[in-house]
Amino acid sequence: QYGDNLRYFVSLLRDPDSAHYSPDTRVLIITPPPIGDKMIERITAQGAQPQARNSVTGTYADLAISVARELGIPHVDLYSAINDAAKTAAAQDPHGTLEGYDQYLVEGIHLREKGNKLLYDLIIQAIAANWPEMAV
């Protein structure tokens, strides 16, 4: 259903029969960020199971990339970028308590300043690569 929804949103802008048709609008698909499982577990009520899991989010990220490729739309893989950065951060943490996500995510889900900066940089790179006339 997630993939179908992405396709539908893109079709609203690309289909000439759509009331929202906008042939000049640039579309960039951004994957969801990863989930810091240990961070989520820490804030979830004792005994309750967290509603979000990084492995599930990875499936959504893969699907977003697949739909972007299928439709010929550029994408930003925020999921992999933060996962890779978090692994590097975790390797520098001798205790390994937060998997490195604490530098990029507030409570395991939402981006903190460093995560937003990474997303911004990735978007600027995607714009420069795909629409150089718009690059700053």
From TrEMBL:
Q: Which domain of life is it from?
A: Eukaryota
Q: What is this protein called in UniProt?
A: Isoamyl acetate-hydrolyzing esterase
Identify the species of origin: Coemansia nantahalensis
| Annotated gene | IAH1_9
